[in-house]
Amino acid sequence: MNRSVTSVPPPAKRSSSILTKAACAPHTVWTVLFIVAPLLFVCYYAFTTEDGTLTLENITALGEHTDTFILSVCMSVIATVLCLLIGYPLAYCISKCGPRTQKVLIMLLMLPMWMNLLIRTYSMMAILDDGGFLNHILSALGFGELHIVGTAPAVIFGMVYNFLPYMVMPIHSVISKLDKRYIEAASDLGCNGFRTLTRVILPLSASGIISGVTMVFVPSISTFYISQKLGGGTFDMIGDTIERQFQNPSTYNVGAAISLVMMILILISMAVMNRFSDDEGTVIV
Amino acid sequence: MKTLSKVYIFLILAILYIPILVLMLFSFNSTNNTGVFTGFSTYWYEELFRNAETFNALKNTLVLAITSAVCSTLIGTAAALGLDRMRGKFMKNTLVSLTNIPMMNPDIVTGVSMMLLFVFVGNMLGQTEKLNFWTLLIAHITFNLPYVLLNVTPKFKQMDRHLPEAALDLGCTPLQSFLKVELPNIMPGVVTGFIMAFTLSLDDFVISYFCSGSEFQTLPILIYSMTKKEVKPDIYALSTLMIVAILTLLILSNISGEKGDVAERKWNDFRSRVRERMTRGGEQK
After folding, report:
1. Domain B57-283 sits in CATH 1.10.3720.10
2. Among candidates A123, A133, A262 on the partner chain, residue whose Cβ is nearest the Cβ of B35
3. Does any CB of chain B come closer than 8 Å to the CB of residue A140?
4. Complex confidence, ipTM
5. Which of A12, A192, B45, B141 is the most buried (most CB within 10 A)?
């Protein structure tokens, strides 16, 4: 993002470079102390025992969390795909509206994001819970009660509910900036509406999809509040496991190892996602 | 087709808002039933206000948000100035990349990594209570910094480079030139950065959760500990109050704000995260 070329060449520096260095100093020190050092500590804890001797035990002990990792990846992939399936048509529909309506709709979509994630998830739980609002309506209508909280769909639904706007925003921003002439050309050349969508609009909005996917996948896979509340304690995701390890100083090392692996996992998946997008992905958003 | 897309948009927005509205409704319920509305009362609000913890957490949250926003704005603005003058491209890029790490990492990793640092240092100093207000403040400043830099750096780039030069030629000291010429130019960026830092700090749960001790609780942490216990509508009441407070703030800032609505601001902070994830992930390949 610093690639942009400064149009005016900087004039000969009259203000001393000492001043420059002094201005940067607090920030540099801060970055090293509180961003770089903590990450080194994660590595340090991941490869040592509680008393500080080097070990690979924490990493090898991750084997017993394999199920958690697989479950988390599956759940967040499902949530991400659902967000895409729901979010893409939504973004498309919004982009069809007039400019004023679009602004209002986007505003309405972003408004819940100002509310704390805890409140949003909790309100979801209040509705879906066994004695909750939805079940009372269902039983009043004579459908019988549904056990929702504590099942996998509830957790996935919670993720979709919380992170859907993250998917819609980048896709909408790409679609609304599409050159309308491409679409006209497609229909001139004989594409019907559906083929225009799949052959023209979809490929052109790939960068938005990729941004959306990363923005939904990363918080989904690392969440612990959503799975705690809507999973009713039966769904252990990576986030829950990490959180539990940090309740007790004796398991900090294992927790650090899991965090490290998760961080690497996310970096890899982002790099993979980026292979699918061209450079424009970073420009358009 | 047109009506279908309208129905679709309406449906999704309804799903987004219904849980929040139900939660607000049931905060006025007369019993602690969360499924059936038995009658209107403000009992849960009174109950909430009888609790000194609520006020304490509210005070803590505000104190933390203001101090962290002020500190990160000061450090970040100085750094943006320094980065603007810095000649070494490598140094500059490294520093910016490092600063942006908290934006790219999942919050849980950022929180855990800082907690490990604090615990390690606390152990070395032999403290019993390792996590306190100061660790929380450090954590908040750290995750606020990239957002301040993101808002201030472009303002330096947009500024006419000859202005400070002229000021120096006309006899200003470098400090005077900064205060009288550059600062007014970059002020909009500084203000946006400050507001963004303030709202991020108000809203943060995950990082605060790992970096706070028992004696200093913020509102999100209080909500978390309240939801760990049995479901009681006093959490609904607290959530409703927070939602109303946020809405009021948003409306006020929309009325008084000169440019850009609130949805846009949230969108901007989200967009910077997308960009960061996309570019950093790209560099890994």
Report:
1. yes
2. A133
3. no
4. 0.83
5. B141
